[in-house]
Amino acid sequence: MPYYQSTHSLSVAAPAEKIYEALTNWPLRAQWRRGIEIHWEGDAKAFRGQTVSFKVKRPFFSYSFSFRISGLEPPRRLYMEYTGRPLKGRAAVEIVPEEKTCRVDFHWMKVEPEGWMAKLYFALGLGMRTHRLRTRETLRMLKEYLEK
Question: How far apart are CA 72 and CA 48, in angstroms?
């Protein structure tokens, strides 16, 4: 079974604590991350074992995915495990302080498509293309929100 890895990064002129809060406070994230619906179990702030679902809305095609928070290291790292269909595997967000900014890295450490549609989508090269576009879009929106 093939799996996919990637890292996408963007520098943000904000302290690590503020970036971490924007990424792990679900109602706040829903404010700045346009084009998706976010649903979560329990508390509005991320906690280990919490399940979070995103529904991505597109004009002709919408899709959903869920992950479980598998680890937190405030204010530097957030670890996730995709729960299956269309993806399973591990991902992480890392916040790396630099001289006057922080670099935000989104890592797909080992992600596999699950289900025949997802496998076909990735086999055609569309899965990684979509992942790259959506990740860059999310990082750009995070930057815009925090630097306004």
Answer: 7
pLDDT tens-digit map of 37-71: 999 999 999 999 999 999 988 787 788 999 999 99
Cα 53 from chain centroid (whole Å): 11
Ordered by where they begin, the domains of the chain are 4-147 (3.30.530.20)
Q: Exposure string (b/e) for 106-118, b if CB count within 10 Å is 16 or more?
A: bbbeebbbbeeeb
- By the 8 A CB rule, do 130 and 111 touch? no
- pTM here is 0.93
Distances (CA, A) of 58 to 36, 87, 103: 9, 18, 28
